[in-house]
Design brief:
The chain has 225 residues and is of the alpha/beta class. The chain has a single domain, classed as P-loop containing nucleotide triphosphate hydrolases (Rossmann fold, 3-Layer(aba) Sandwich). The strands form two sheets. Strands 6-7-8-3-9-10 form a six-stranded mixed β-sheet, with helices on both faces. The chain has a four-stranded antiparallel β-sheet with strand order 2-1-4-5, covered by helices on one side. It binds adenosine-5'-diphosphate (ADP) and magnesium ion.
Amino acid sequence: MIELTGVSKIFNEGQPNAFPAVDGIDLLLPSGEVTLFTGPSGSGKTTLLTLIGCLAKPSMGRIRIDGQAVSGLPERFLTALRRTTFGFVFQKFNLIHGLSVLENVMLPAAPLGLPRQQVMRTAMEILEKLDLTRKAHARVEWLSGGEAQRTAMARALINRPRVVIADEPTANLDSRLGSAFLQIIADLRHDGHTVLISSHDPLVLHAPVVERVVTMRDGRIVERG
Ligand SMILES: Nc1ncnc2c1ncn2[C@@H]1O[C@H](COP(=O)(O)OP(=O)(O)O)[C@@H](O)[C@H]1O
Ligand SMILES: [Mg+2]
């Protein structure tokens, strides 16, 4: 369970150009559910996801994860939490050029200090699930859009995070690949992951796997369904 109470993020706080990108959000996200954040560009979706994923700290309010308040935790705890609790898929995928698919997928596991063979085995299992076995040793700069998307997904899953966060994951995909992405989400849900997606893609908005839709505008929630 992720619990947000009065969460705000004000950029350039205290300056004339101060801007509340997220403005007083109260929200409960039960474990194991798929939630979609939608709303126009600039409505605060990405900012909210970075707060939930502990990539940034709220200016106000409190975020609890399974009852533990994370907003006040020191940076070293947040780093550990980010690595083990959350898996991120960014809109631009952020894959590391010059490395292979397998190396990219293994990267987030490096700080955990597990045996390399074990990490590689896990990575290959995930790649197989995502139909990327044949591409394991290909350099990421040669991948198609769909392959890059699935590689980013595989990388998000390497540390078996309880919560997977995907920001506009289908923005660079055609509708066939978008559907493939939704199948991956359905599998994640089946495996008990909590999934948070931001998107204004109608394909995602109307997908049966999405259980909860939170609509944002100007940093606020205007509708929850
Ligand atoms: N680092 C930043 N500094 C100042 N303003 C920002 C920053 N990041 C985002 N914003 C602003 O906050 C608002 C919400 O942005 P964002 O969360 O990216 O919205 P969305 O993902 O819904 O498009 C936008 O108006 C954006 O320009
Ligand atoms: Mg965004």
